[in-house]
Design goal:
The chain is an alpha+beta fold. It has helices at about 5-15, 20-35, 65-70, 115, 125-130, 135-140, 165-170, 260-270, 285-295, 305-315, 325-340, 345-360, 360-370; strands at about 40-50, 50-60, 80-85, 95, 160-165, 175-180, 185-195, 200-205, 210-220, 225-230, 235-240, 250-255. It is built from 13 helices and twelve strands. α10 packs antiparallel against α11 (about 325-340) and α11 (about 325-340) runs antiparallel to α12 (about 345-360). The longest helix has 20 residues, at about 325-340.
């Protein structure tokens, strides 16, 4: 379905997705103006979607500058997708990459709109302008000094709706179907998505239309700990660093038939990008063990083990608050703050926040002021 379609068909598609006359006029004008783009460089087509109107943009190899082609040895056109929801242009469009052209791949459901226009969205920005910036955006990505820098581009939107069929179309991601064990011990259906650099959690909104809502996501690098039960156990516990959550961590328990496969993939992805993810955990909590480990300098070789120790103590603090645990945890926080400060790592702020949050807790203050364990 191209922009050269008959006017009746063209209008019916616009009216299907945009109910207001003022929107229809704007969209019609916008889409027709795309013909002003270099037709040899940009091939534009339209596609209906349950979430809105998709504008498919195919960048020919000729439209991409020589340095991009040579650095990536591109053999096929690069395809982007602009999704216009029924509130466009007052709601910003979403821009997705559909072609595996980098590692970690850009084709993983991230929205790259603001990276291309390099400013906040405004209804005055035209689709033609957005599309025209795509070659420049690709050059910026390809010229990143390290491949993992591609993770800094694009974003996921909490609460955003996704189509399951669209996600299944991405070659670089793996989807799992399972359930999340909630605090009230109920099980809620979930879809878990593992991209090359991110882990995402979805809930089902409309089962018949395969519509999912994004509940949470995390960079693979933020995984602190993975735990799985016995071989026949279908559960997996995932702990991630999350400074938005109380205590600076978020923990999820999932139940799924492919728990072992999910764990293997998460560990492999973490190791691929330099994260030492371990599935092992200490069965018995021994404060003397952790106190002794404080004497060991923190470096790049053992930082992940130190973060696991911190996770163990944070979990222990929820069931047994004592001076020993609090003081040891404080000492660990201070050590990792010093470590990350040496590398100008933004995780400094996260662990400074953890330390501050710990000291503000009333139950912690009660423990420190007591004569024994609570």
């Amino acid at each position: 379905m191209t922009l050269n379609m008959e006017k009746q068909s063209f209008d019916s598609i616009i009216e299907q997705h945009f109910p207001k006359d003022i929107q229809q006029k704007r969209i019609r004008k916008e889409l027709l103006s795309l013909n002003e783009l270099n037709q040899d460089a940009f091939k534009i087509s339209l596609l209906n979607s349950s979430l809105g109107l998709k504008v498919i943009v195919e960048l020919s190899l000729e439209s991409l500058e020589r340095d991009i082609q040579e650095s990536e040895n591109l053999q096929h056109p690069v395809i982007f997708e602009l999704l216009l929801d029924p509130q466009f242009p007052f709601n910003l469009p979403k821009l997705f990459c559909q072609t595996n052209i980098y590692e970690p791949s850009l084709a993983d459901g991230r929205d790259f709109l603001e990276d291309t226009i390099e400013k906040p969205w405004s209804p005055t920005i035209l689709l033609r302008e957005v599309i025209g910036t795509l070659p420049r955006f690709l050059r910026k990505v390809m010229q990143s000094p390290r491949p993992e820098d591609s993770q800094s581009f694009g974003k996921y939107h909490l609460g955003e709706l996704y189509n399951l069929e669209d996600l299944l179309g991405y070659e670089s991601i793996i989807l799992f179907s399972g359930e999340e064990a909630l605090v009230n011990k109920k099980l809620a259906p979930r879809y878990l998505m593992v991209a090359e650099s991110h882990f995402l959690i979805f809930e089902t909104v409309e089962k018949t239309k395969n519509i999912l809502r994004l509940l949470d996501f995390a960079n693979i690098r933020s995984i602190i700990n993975l735990k799985k039960g016995k071989q026949e156990d279908r559960s997996i516990v995932l702990t991630i660093a999350d400074k938005e959550k109380q205590g600076g961590v978020a923990q999820y328990k999932f139940v799924l038939n492919e728990a072992s496969k999910l764990m293997e993939i998460l560990i492999a992805m973490g190791q691929k990008y330099g994260v030492k993810v371990s599935g092992a955990s200490k069965k018995n909590f021994d404060i003397a063990y952790y106190s002794a480990r404080l004497a060991i300098p923190v470096d790049e070789d053992n930082i992940e083990e130190v973060l696991e120790d911190i996770n163990d103590m944070e979990l222990k603090l929820e069931t047994q608050i004592s001076k020993e645990v609090v003081y040891t945890l404080m000492a660990y926080y201070q050590k990792v703050v010093e470590h990350f400060a040496n590398y100008d790592d933004p995780l400094v702020d996260e662990f400074v926040g953890k330390l501050k949050s710990l000291m503000k807790r009333e139950d912690v203050q009660n423990a420190l002021n007591s004569t024994g364990n609570l």
